[in-house]
Design brief:
By secondary structure, the chain is of the alpha+beta class. The protein is built from three helices and eleven strands.
């Protein structure tokens, strides 16, 4: 089987076309896209791409983490794609073949503050169905302790964060739903695509407008979580408030500020 592998590639970064960019929802927007390191593999059964900004190699521990994740994701995806294509080949007379699978992962740097780098990850996967799927993740890099940190661990609990932001979150979510659907959303609806959802169960991304402290929280919501697939992702941008700071663990409150 022909396999083409490229890693790393220094090239202008382009957002995966199937994945809505998060950057528009965060401040400040980048003037131009950074160069990236990319792992690209293509075979008869699949195509795989994994990239992150070259600027992140300034943190050697983070570079090792991202490179290790690239190899882990590739190995897992290779096994799945090769297994499914082999099973399909053995289950019929060759009259039907699976389309090549696709998996693309793109890391972005949201913002850097003195103690942390805040990162987002968007992915697109196609496994031969009617359409592909998208998703997102978030991550913090603790620069002084040289370790990865899940954003939710900065808060006293997921419930505390939900309590602090849910009213504003639900209001903004319904406003975006109404804009996409062209009609108001009933707040007492039993429709699962009209009810509010739990913010902390989505992807929580921390941003900054001042480069010193986290003063924005963006909740990224993937397809089917808040609406049908055709509506795509929802991105709920919220300024940090006193209530949100009160939900942060005392050791991390110095890293947050109310958005002015």
């Amino acid at each position: 089987m022909d396999m083409k592998i490229l890693f790393p590639l220094a090239a202008a970064c382009s957002t995966i076309s199937m994945v809505p960019p998060l950057q528009a929802a965060l401040d400040p927007p980048l003037a131009e896209e950074p160069e990236v390191r990319e792992l690209a593999v293509q075979t008869d059964n699949f195509s795989f791409k994994y990239s992150y900004p070259k600027s992140l190699i300034s943190e050697p521990g983070l570079e090792l983490y991202l490179d290790r994740k690239a190899q882990e994701e590739l190995e897992k995806f290779t096994k799945e794609a090769d297994r499914d294509h082999a099973d399909m080949a053995s289950d019929n007379d060759g009259s039907f073949k699976l389309l090549p699978y696709e998996y693309e992962i793109s890391w972005k740097e949201i913002v850097e503050i003195p103690d942390f780098l805040s990162l987002s990850q968007f992915w697109y996967g196609f496994y031969g169905g009617a359409h592909g799927m998208t998703g997102s993740k978030s991550l913090l890099w603790d620069k002084y302790n040289e370790r990865t940190v899940e954003p939710l661990t900065l808060f006293t609990s997921a419930t505390a964060l939900d309590t602090a932001l849910k009213a504003e979150f639900c209001s903004e979510l319904n406003a975006q739903r109404a804009e996409k659907r062209g009609r108001p959303i009933a707040t007492d609806s039993d429709d699962s695509f009209e009810k509010c959802i739990t913010p902390s169960a989505q992807t929580v991304m921390l941003g900054s407008s001042n480069g010193q402290t986290f003063d924005t929280v963006t909740i990224n919501i993937g397809p089917y979580a808040a609406g049908p697939y055709v509506e795509g992702d929802y991105q709920i941008y919220l300024p940090v408030t006193e209530a949100i700071i009160n939900s942060v663990k005392p050791d991390y409150r110095k890293n947050f500020a109310i958005k002015r």
